[in-house]
Design brief:
Helix 1 packs across helix 2. The chain has a two-stranded antiparallel sheet with strand order 1-2. The mean pLDDT is 80. The chain is elongated, with a radius of gyration of 19 Å. By secondary structure, the protein is mainly alpha-helical. Helices cover 48% and strands 5% of the residues. The protein is built from four helices and two strands.
Amino acid sequence: MDERPLTIKEAAVVLGMSRWTLRDRVTAGTVPHRRTGKVRGVVFDPEHIEQIKQADTRPALGTPSRSAARTRHAARTSQPSAA
């Protein structure tokens, strides 16, 4: 890997996630990064990329999939009533 810092777009490709997921994680403070002098400028050093790869065991931030929501809804509505 290069020794130069990566942009969000470049880091997302290396990490195999969308740039929006990575940006959400930066905003949430759950991934190591470094801010640059630019407005909203964020870069990832090679050490940051390795730390993220090692710690990336949880799903991306965001809403659950529709199928997961349907499964939870079906489980709630299929319980027998106490009549």
